[in-house]
Amino acid sequence: MGILWYKFKLSHNGPSLPPGPCSLPIVGYLPFLGSELHTEFTNMAHTYGPIFKCQLGSKLCVVINTPELVKVVTRDQDEAFSDRDQTTAALSITYGGQDIVVSNNNENWRKLRKIFVHEMLSNKNLEASGSFRSNEVRKTIKTVFGQIGTTVNIRNIAFATLTNVLTRMVWGNTSDKGEGNRNLGDELDILSSNISRLFGRVNLSDLFPSLARFDIQGIERDMKKQHNKLDQIFNSIIKDRIESNTKETPDDGEHEGKKDFLQILFSLLDQKDTTSLSMTQIKALLTDVMIAGTETTATTVEWAMASVMHNDNVMKRVKEELAEVVGLDNIVEESHVPKLKYLNATVKETLRLYPVSPLLVPRRARKACMVGGYTIPKKCTIFLNVSSIHRDPRYWDNPLEFNPERFLINKLDTKGNDFKYFPFGSGRRICAGVSLAEKMLILILASLLHSFEWTLPKGEEHDFTETFGAVLKKTNPLVAIPSQRLSDVRLYM
Ligand code: HEM
């Protein structure tokens, strides 16, 4: 009888929505959801299975928890799931979604992504800008040298380095030139932290659209404030560039042949063809670079340093490799990066255990589809729970152990082709900055670990507690004390 009824239901109503917890009227499951969304979703997967639904206010969310179903979403039906869940906060900071991260799959997104990946981050441009990165990292080493014996906040030093590297790549400037520019680095750090914090908050305006105009929690208001500050920074940099009316970087001949991002973007400004960009699109793209590029990478450097310091064996092997590849009478250059196989594996292992976007950047179904035998309605929000898959004992031996060795054996890469490991996402919405992120991550880590010995302050212990947000952060920042590792002090100048 039961089977007959099921068949009847199926033939009349079609496949059902995925299973999920009971919800209250209007608010749905919202009152029961804790703040650590990724662990909540992982726990719920144990009860409801590899795909489950969760009603949050008026928003229907579906959470995917296995590699097989990730493949369905990001490869088999990639097109259908290639829009973003555009929250009020996200739209407020990206000129209404005119950037790459937040834009839906449309003409604007395709054009910006193509320019970013194929022109700004082309192999040629990345290679030519290698000296920018090496120079900025060298300055960081000099700064840390001046702090020997005192406490250094690793995330902050990584963030400052990244800001310097990126501003240098974007507009050929460095944030440590002159007092005004030094403030720019600090300003970007504060802005980026604020934006990340606001992104991470559940916004009632998104879950109950009828309340949106009241902006009850003030998230939209606060995000707009951050947006205005960022916009002012971009306006002043663009104005300077237009006034100077020069296409040379401040280093003149030093890096001949290389173009900074602004030069590339300005050459497309208000053209008559389809590659044409507006000034707003340029600023939206700069927002992505300065926000998506800094917080993610700096946080990963922090998780990696903490993990290496906590595991004596890993530290020993990293140092041995650096001594062999770089040499104790030398400093790290970008040319060493591909040869540092064990350090590369260490970064991959860090991104496995601490993927900075544990639920990726949520997507939205462009049309109704089927996943895992269930209906996914149009406009449904999709979370891909990468953190749960990265720690699932069905796919990883001793998943909670920090063991870079596994990436020397399995040869998994970060291109999102194996759906049990995809820290940068997968499919057409995969991180557009992977190539740059990997270079910067390894260069910064290698330099910090090659030039200094690191210890925790007396009485401190490692703590790996996580805080969920736009970026998965270490709840307690890693603060460590550097000492000189290389005997020749000239290597720190
Ligand atoms: C450790 C460093 C980084 C990590 C772990 C990371 C991770 C991610 C993830 C998970 C996504 C969403 C992918 C998806 O939805 O499938 C993403 C998107 C994106 N990331 Fe990154 N990212 C990093 C660094 C960077 C850097 C350095 C840049 C640029 C300078 C960048 C630019 C972008 C952009 C533009 C997108 C949007 C792509 C799109 O929607 O088409 N990211 N990133």
From TrEMBL:
Domain of life: Eukaryota
Pfam families found in the cross-reference section: p450
Cofactor: heme
Binding sites annotated in the UniProt record for heme: C431
InterPro entries in the record: Cyt_P450 (IPR001128), Cyt_P450_CS (IPR017972), Cyt_P450_E_grp-I (IPR002401), Cyt_P450_sf (IPR036396)
Keyword Metal-binding appears in the UniProt entry: yes
Record's keyword terms, sorted: Heme, Iron, Metal-binding, Monooxygenase, Oxidoreductase
GO terms assigned for molecular function: heme binding; iron ion binding; monooxygenase activity; oxidoreductase activity, acting on paired donors, with incorporation or reduction of molecular oxygen
Family: Belongs to the cytochrome P450 family.
PANTHER family listed in its UniProt record: FLAVONOID 3',5'-HYDROXYLASE-LIKE ISOFORM X1, OS08G0547900 PROTEIN
The protein's name: Cytochrome P450
